[in-house]
From TrEMBL:
Pfam families: HTH_18. SUPFAM superfamilies: Homeodomain-like (SSF46689), RmlC-like cupins (SSF51182). PROSITE patterns: HTH_ARAC_FAMILY_1, HTH_ARAC_FAMILY_2. Residues 168-266 form the HTH araC/xylS-type domain. It comes from the Bacteria. Keywords: DNA-binding, Transcription, Transcription regulation. GO terms for molecular function: DNA-binding transcription factor activity; sequence-specific DNA binding. The keyword Transcription applies. This is AraC family transcriptional regulator. SMART domains: HTH_ARAC.
């Protein structure tokens, strides 16, 4: 299953979860490594400090506000990388029904704006861990699900904000580099976003596909040059990012309904008569 917030949320929404264990642990500065032999998958909630979490071949940087989902297949190696104790609370859970499509065996980070989103409730859940009886079990389950909901909503909101920021950065990048050889493939590589996803997010943000935005921005810039600058059509084409002036002319006409020379003539007449 693809690792997206939509899929992560769908996984937890449909999973039949049984909370198995809750405990608090820390990794101090002097003895910087802690190892946890996981019996089930779970979530690590950082409370204080920062650490690298090694699980299998992957390595994750965690700190308060970054909740780490780990699986039951690997030993969790936690390496303190800060200048204070790394403190965290772990919740371990099991599923009553497994499918090949679930994320029980997956490892991923949920990035939140702040640890305050889960801090109070995770301590409340920890305090309920030793309480006996069916009612206590129900309270633990409800508290855990409440924490999950808060964390997932906060992670989704954080991702949405990050996406908007990234799209604004891409718009700014295009406006600075429009006269260079740029296209959606190059931009996708630069911002480490899958090409089709970038195109989808960019169009959702601006109303235009990346290539259309680049084209319209170049044409807009060339209009100003045609109106004001004493440059040939070929020079203007090169100035706005087109090596082939004939291709530029075709693009310009498609966008404006007239050729660059006709546009220049019309604007020159307008300026002369004004």
């Amino acid at each position: 299953m693809e690792m997206t917030m939509m899929n992560i949320t769908a996984y937890f929404a449909t999973a039949t979860i049984a909370l198995k264990n809750v405990f608090q642990e820390s990794t101090n500065i002097e003895n910087s490594f802690t190892h946890i032999h996981t019996q089930s998958s779970g979530l690590l909630f950082p409370i204080k400090g920062s650490a690298w979490v090694h699980s299998g071949k992957e390595k994750f940087y965690v700190k308060p506000g970054k909740v780490f989902h780990f699986n039951n297949k690997e030993v969790l190696h936690i390496e303190n990388c800060g200048d204070e104790h790394f403190e965290f609370i772990v919740t371990q859970y099991e599923l009553s029904n497994r499918t090949n499509e679930d994320l029980y065996d997956a490892q991923f980070l949920l990035r939140l704006a702040s640890e305050e989103i889960y801090l109070q409730k995770i301590y409340e859940l920890l305090s309920l861990q030793a309480a006996p009886g069916a009612m206590a079990e129900m309270n633990r389950k409800n508290k855990f699900l409440s924490i999950l909901q808060d964390v997932l909503e906060a992670a989704r909101n954080e991702q949405l904000h990050a996406t908007v920021d990234t799209m604004e950065q891409i718009v700014e990048y295009i406006q600075k580099h429009y006269n260079e050889k740029i296209n959606v493939t190059k931009i996708a590589e630069l911002y480490a976003i899958e090409r089709r996803r970038l195109a989808y997010l960019f169009e959702k943000h601006t109303g235009l596909s990346p290539n259309t935005y680049i084209t319209e921005y170049r044409v807009s810039k060339s209009k100003s040059l045609l109106e004001r600058a004493e440059l040939s059509i070929a020079e203007i084409a090169e100035t706005v990012g087109y090596e082939d002036c004939f291709y530029y002319s075709r693009v310009f006409k498609k966008q404006t309904g007239m050729s660059p020379s006709a546009y220049r003539k019309e604007k020159t007449v307008s300026w002369t008569n004004s």
